[in-house]
Amino acid sequence: MDYAFYQEYWWFLVSLLGAILVFLFFVQGGQSLLYTIGKTDEERTLMVNSIGRKWEFTFTTLVTFGGGFFASFPLFYSTSFGGAYWPWMLILICFVLQAFSYEFRKKEGNILGHKTYEAFLLLNGFVGLLLFGTAVGTFFTGSEFIVNKENIYQPLMPVISTWQNPLHGLEAVANPRNVLLGLAVFFLARVLGSLYFINNIRHVAINARSRKQVLINSILFLVTFLAFFIWTLCAKGFAVHPETGEVYMQNAKYFHNLIEMPLIGIMLLVGVVALLYGIGIGVFCSRSTKGIWFAGLGTVLAVLSLLLILGYNNTAFYPSVSDLQSSLTIRNSSSSLFTLKVMSVVSLFIPVVLAYIFYAWRMMDKKQIDTNDLKDNHNPQY
């Protein structure tokens, strides 16, 4: 277990957290459908109470994902969050507004009215997802920054990374490939949100409208994701020379990564098949409510595969288009060996946490909710 092993181990854990986060975005996807599926205040309240039981899982996973990146690859954290701060700040604001909305939407003395908080939920569902997907798209297309580690010795300005664009991250929306990934994440979240409503809510009208939204958003997701995926496989990628660490452009780099790491390619294929199977259940099997679980597993496997080909096989996971040699890899941006070792011991408790989440989820979803649950004072109301 040398230094390289721990770097790859932590890239796997961070990627797994990112994949789980994308699955949990079904909460945001459900929020974006409040006025599409819900036609009355009672139906929207039922939908909010359904996903309201899970929003903390998404928020906690987002924080853990950021914390894991900070602890294991601090140079990425300081470069991206310190340089491209506008997208990340807007994403954070969207999630903070979401937390306030679930807390105060139905609270007595709510002077803003429940529609104001529903607007905040829509904002989180639309803007939060689009910005997150667009920001992650820069992992494939590159960003405008320069890294100079020698600056750490400057007493007045010990700044290692400097951003080269005055928009500080917002320039990512000008790249159509980034936007395609943002749209793909958005439509995927709406598919997962619709499948979750089918699984969790006992309501004929909501169920029928949710199945319709699964079909519509699945088509839009497949169009945007395939456009991004094919473009990425055909485009030049940011390769790293294994001996010198020099970063250079390689034709079809991410396609080569899939070929040269066949297990990841197989995992991607299994994930896509599971996702499509879950979608098929949601669209064509009117009596089945299990589509969310197949689609959820497929989402985790597919996203995990895409993130792994970003960091493994001598690839720069956060490339710089301003200076190729400033690009970040799992080798030049990770914490020290001692830090990674200590954190690896702590990570052994992850299965215990996952088991608790699974238990809590099962207890909350033992039965589908319906309008009668809105009158039950023993259940939290959102």
UniProtKB/TrEMBL annotation:
Annotated TM spans: 12-37, 57-77, 83-100, 121-140, 179-198, 219-241, 261-285, 292-312, 338-359
Record's keyword annotation contains Transport: yes
Highest rank taxon of the organism: Bacteria
GO cellular component terms, semicolon-separated: cytochrome complex; plasma membrane
Recorded topology in the membrane: Multi-pass membrane protein
GO biological process, one term: aerobic electron transport chain
GO molecular function: electron transfer activity; metal ion binding; oxidoreductase activity, acting on diphenols and related substances as donors, oxygen as acceptor
Record-linked Pfam families: Cyt_bd_oxida_II
Keywords from the UniProt entry: Cell membrane, Electron transport, Heme, Iron, Membrane, Metal-binding, Transmembrane, Transmembrane helix, Transport
Subcellular location: Cell membrane
NCBIfam families: cydB
Similarity section: Belongs to the cytochrome ubiquinol oxidase subunit 2 family.
Protein name: Cytochrome d ubiquinol oxidase subunit II
